[in-house]
Amino acid sequence: MSGNIDQKFVYDFTEGNRDLKDLLGGKGANLAEMTNLGLPVPPGFTITTEACKVYLESGSEPVELRDEVTAHLDALERQMGKKLGQADDPLLVSVRSGAKFSMPGMMDTVLNIGLSDESVAGLARQADNERFAWDSYRRLIQMFGKTVLGVDGELFEEALDEAKAAKKVASDTDLDAGDLKKVVKQFKKIVKAQTGRDFPQDPREQMDLAIEAVFNSWNTDRAKLYRRQERIPGDLGTAVNVCSMVFGNLGPDSGTGVAFTRDPASGHAGVYGDYLQNAQGEDVVAGIRNTVPLADLESIDKKSYDQLMHIMSTLETHYKDLCDIEFTIERGQLWMLQTRVGKRTAGAAFRIATQLVDQGLIDEAEALQRVTGAQLAQLMFPKFDENAKVEQIGRGIAASPGAAVGKAVFDSYTAVKWSRSGEKVILIRRETNPDDLDGMIAAEGILTSRGGKTSHAAVVARGMGKTCVCGAEELEVDTKRRRMTTADGQVVEEGDVVSIDGSTGKVYIGEVPVVPSPVVEYFEGRMHAGADDADELVAAVHRIMAYADRVRRLRVRANADNAEDALRARRFGAQGIGLCRTEHMFLGERRQYVERLILADTDAEREESLKALLPLQKQDFIELFEAMDGLPVTVRLLDPPLHEFLPDITELSVRVALAESRKEPHENDLRLLQAVHRLHEQNPMLGLRGVRLGLVIPGLFTMQVRAIAEAAAQRIDAKGDPRVEIMIPLVGTVQELEIVREEAEQVIAEVQAQTGVELKLALGTMIELPRAAVTAGQIAEAAEFFSFGTNDLTQTVWGFSRDDVEASFFTAYLEKGIFGVSPFETIDKDGVGALVRSAVQAGRATRPDIKLGVCGEHGGDPESVHFFHEVGLDYVSCSPFRIPVARLEAGRAAAEAKGSDSR
């Protein structure tokens, strides 16, 4: 297959630059950039990603590629004054992969191409070092055999170990030329036995096969898995870099190393890296031999050290960022083999960004782009001490980050009881339900053997900033016997101490020491006067957050259901409440009133139940409005199906049967059982819930609206400033909203008349059904605001039950590349996002001043926040703990959009 007639597939290092990463890959683009800067880069050329794409699509290289490679190889040979693999003075080259995004160790590299039985002697004479030549030849056969010919690498390692054992030495550097000749002979036998062919002696065949192997390495299992994990597109392809070899294994005056322009762990300036004398590049990363700190190079080879320090300063100033560098010293001559913007820890990212601002290398807008919400989240969660000794007993889904330690308990009652006695506990359940809320609040963390990242346990835990591990299926939870059994039969009894890591999903027996987060203490206004390093980190976070808040357009609200959560959210920077879930106010002791409401046979009984609930609801709202005084509070009327407030059908049936067999009184349980049967639904999440409840159960929504209105009036009387928005859930048609709105307005008018207080309560709806999104223009006629409930919208668009699908088949979907990420974590822009976009446009067309927000889990997801900025929402709402992340990402989205506009 051919490319375009004018398409160029090969670029010399002198022709490219760092802006051509799409075409030349990161490695090739940066080699070209360093060449342009006049740094000592071995000459070479890059085969483009476009050539790889043609190869992967057609199974063969572009027809033009061989001629282009030949032309560039000829030019390289003229420049070097020697030919590839010639017998007397051979030119040797490396063939290395280099995709746009760094994929360390995922794709293939072959060094020393051009060596053969004939040219190895010439290399020995050229270098005046026979051992070096044969060491380089054995490396070529080993790398080429494994990478290009598919020979099991263990066979080569075993042969090398046998040679060392025969010589009674520990390191391959102790093998002399004679030993290495025998190793080469053995390696060639392995190649012949495993492939049926001799190791290729033609240097051009070696190079062509290596180039093809690099192309193929783009689609190896490990490369595909890495791309899925890092969310790197699979259609980018890799470039191939052909570079003249320089040798770090020529003796003690040679070596190879890696360097960072500042510490990637802390961000502090200094000399960071590793160096290894008499070695080639793979020796450093393989860990076969112990390196020395880069600072030791000053005493080993001061000339090269000083030159390297100057180059590192040049590169950091040029790239305006931390640089990761690979280099080789060949008999005192320094060569630069690679540079890239270096990976760093979350803490280092914030420190480096502000340091570079102080140095005048970047401005605040660029500093904001150098950090991410994911990095900020890492800084906020406590972590286990990495140096501690641990005993892992299981692993589940990392549902809510953090590190939690406590005694194992298996029900909410015990969790609350022990917690009140001063015990730290971990609540362990098969899965949680709304009845477990008290226990979840009391616990340090939650562990379940079922469920995924959007299960009840996960969603509630994230909302509380509580550590949670879900779906640890290898752990068998027996709540009746109050124990948990591991896969190898170890039993964890109630009271045994366990530790769970919500960032990794790992579960440990015993107490693992926890390191607190100074960043959370900063956000909560109680940062301790700790180490200088912690203060410096907090100062960096503060500066970047302040700038993000100045530039962002999206406001950030909290999902909070009580005054305590609201106050914490406010400390974290919330600008209101975007979702108050009133169903959480109906649990615990209040459940009896809901049961009476469900069991009511007459209007009088129903009114009595509602009358009992009214003052309780009102007090909840008074406390909430006081906590958020002066800021908007969106209160969602009752949303979940009524069966969630009733006993489990199986347990209740057993209770009734036992009572009947013992002839004990059971009238109330019998009535409850009849109600449970009457309300039973095959799919309750798509049944009688949300606005449908308000229309079917007279007085339910009007009781809630009255409680809200009376609470608002009382706050105004107390000189408060409540800004209340009432949200009707699960609306699918404007007629539903119109009926509820009319009833609500009537109640509000009655409260105004009774109290003499003017109330301005906005009425709006959640857009969480596809039909609501499609008919948003009609619904906007009766709604003053929309809040997109993206959790349910994702369920109904995809036809997924979020409580079931993550545990059943999401893993397979992620592994097969159907998902890059769960649509419950990051919004599906093409499907769910398209509905959000069209609903925004339709809603604003009908009502230009309509307020638009989102209150699903996506409101705190970094990538989703950028999408919500793009489509023009006014605010996002998320759990209190994720507010700083949403603030940061809203700022990044605004800065990114401004940068795009200016370009």
TrEMBL record:
Its cofactor is Mg(2+). Pfam families: PEP-utilizers, PEP-utilizers_C, PPDK_N. GO terms for molecular function: pyruvate, phosphate dikinase activity. Gene3D superfamilies: 1.20.80.30, ATP-grasp fold, A domain, ATP-grasp fold, B domain, Phosphoenolpyruvate-binding domains, Phosphohistidine domain, Pyruvate Phosphate Dikinase, domain 2. Residues 539-890 form the PEP-utilising enzyme C-terminal domain. Residues 423-505 form the PEP-utilising enzyme mobile domain. NCBIfam families: PRK05878.1, pyru_phos_dikin. This is Pyruvate, phosphate dikinase. The lineage of its organism: Bacteria, Bacillati, Actinomycetota, Actinomycetes, Kitasatosporales.
